Amino acid sequence: MTKILHRSISTTLPRAVAGEGICITDSEGRTYIDGSGGAAVSCLGHNHPEVLEAMKVQMGRISYAHTSFFTTDVAEQLADQLIELAPDGLDYVYLVSGGSEAVEAALKMARQYYVEIGQSQRRHIIARRQSYHGNTIGALATGGNAWRRAQFKPILPETHHVSPCYAYRDMQSGETPEAYAERLAVELEDKIIELGADEVMAFVAEPVVGATLGAVGPVADYFKRVRQICDKYGILLILDEVMCGMGRTGTIFALEQEGVVPDLVTIAKGLGGGFQPIGAVLLSETVYRAFADGSGLFQHGHTYIGHPIAAAAASKVVEILTRPEVMPNVLKMGDRLQAGLDSALGQSPYVGDIRGRGLFRGVEIVADKDTKQPFDPARKIHSMIRKEAMQRGLMCYPMGGTVDGVHGDHVLLAPPYIIQPEQVDLIVERLAAAIDAAVKS
Ligand code: PLP
Fold it and tell me: Which of 194, 249, 255, 359 has the most CB within a 10 Å radius?
């Protein structure tokens, strides 16, 4: 009899008792391939000995020192590593304990930045429909997923949403990617003007949309146009790399592939690799200077920010991510995963699109391939796929509401970067069988 309020009260979960490499074993002795890294978290697999050792060493030194009294070598080291890796223009780090905290901190940072520079009228946040930025009140309000927001809407702060960059469904036939990017840019600019250009503080977007769309990257030039518009109106660009960052798409930061540098970036998930809860906001010199030359403090903070053991785990994870074999394996195995999915599912009448970058791939399920008509949401195809996959020893990350927050289903794959070719093939085989069983059930 559990005393935990589990995510879903009606289902009985298996008990995870061990993790090794890319697999998790439950108390019944069943082993599951972690094809989704949980929720795109376990980038180095489970029980990585070097990360565990780094945590143990730190525990032997100091486990906790409140950040209003002390800094620590390990937190400073992690910040140095992240800035060394980040594109030029991202110069400082604010450490937190997860993705939602990172997004909340970035929003408050944006707001305080404008207060510091004497533009306290700026208050509007614009984000995109079909995005996910976390579950705390500010992050949930920023996200554009109708289902997640619905019952909490009356208590969410005001935010505004424009279209996502979702070529599979929204790029019109005959429209070029450039023209599509331009159409979306015009929509953003119109929204800014509608709200009052000097009252908008930030535009928030995931470079590659994860949970809500299933590994949907932008068309070329989209983020360049977004950056230009933000610059034109003096609006901060916040890119949320909580899911797609830390090497998931084959580069440490997904935004490196877009040729833009935002003012603020949020990271989490793969940063701690599941070994510790940790997240961060990376910020530009300009934002930092506004605080440093202004009030001299960022009016924020949580008890566990900059936690030394979390920083030790993340520092080791980041060091491993930069080893010469790791990103090439993400790209190589990512290509293999895409090719495997294409060949196993490309002809399926129920698979509309297979997409993604690196080891971040999405499969969109449809009832009719030609019209892209989704399944009736009452069939809960995504839940069925999860169940069928688990029965076949595969963890994947299916989600509903892909099209509009209610209709549509997709499956997200985000396996650990240490994955080997035969394991990629097993994921494909098991997922194909699970999708087949789910749509036939
Ligand atoms: N931002 C993005 C893009 C995410 O995918 C998530 C979680 O899935 C979050 C923020 C929230 O992160 P967390 O669940 O660690 O609070």
Answer: 359
Query: For ligand 1, what atom is nearest to the CA of residue 240?
Result: 3
Tens-place pLDDT, residues 245-303? 999 999 999 999 999 999 999 999 999 999 999 999 999 999 999 999 999 999 999 99
- How far apart (Å, rounded) are the C-alpha atoms in residues 321 and 273? 10
CA-proximal residue: ligand 1, atom 1 (nearest): 133
Instruction: Write out residues with Cβ below 6 Å of ligand 1.
Output: 39, 98-100, 103, 132-134, 206, 210-211, 240, 242-243, 268
Q: Domains plus CATH for the chain?
A: 16-34+324-440 (3.90.1150.10), 53-321 (3.40.640.10)
Quick one: the chain helix, strand, coil %, rounded to 5? 40, 20, 40
Instruction: Convert the pLDDT of each residue in 407-441 to its tens digit.
Output: 999 999 999 999 999 999 999 999 999 999 999 98
Q: How far apart are CA 209 and CA 218, in angstroms?
A: 9
Could you tell me which residues come within 8 angstroms of residue 103 by beta carbon, excluding any fewer than 6 positions away?
133, 134, 136, 138, 139, 142, 204, 240, 242, 266
Q: For ligand 1, what atom is nearest to the CA of residue 139?
A: 10
Nearest ligand 1 atom to alpha carbon 279: 15
Q: Whose CA is nearest to atom 15 of ligand 1?
A: 99
Q: Over the stretch 100-131, which tens digit does the pLDDT of each residue have?
A: 999 999 999 999 999 999 999 999 999 999 99
For ligand 1, atom 13, the nearest C-alpha belongs to: 99
C-alpha 265 – ligand 1 centre gap (Å): 13
Query: Residue 131 CB: number of other CB atoms within 10 A?
Result: 21
Residue 92, C-beta contacts closer than 8 angstroms, at least 6 positions apart: 79, 83, 282, 283, 284, 285, 287, 288
Strands of the sheet containing 409-413, edge to edge, are 351-357, 360-365, 409-413, 397-400
Distance from the CA of 293 to the center of ligand 1, in angstroms? 32
**Mean pLDDT of all residues in the chain?**
98
Q: How many helices (H) and strands (E) does the chain have?
A: 14, 15
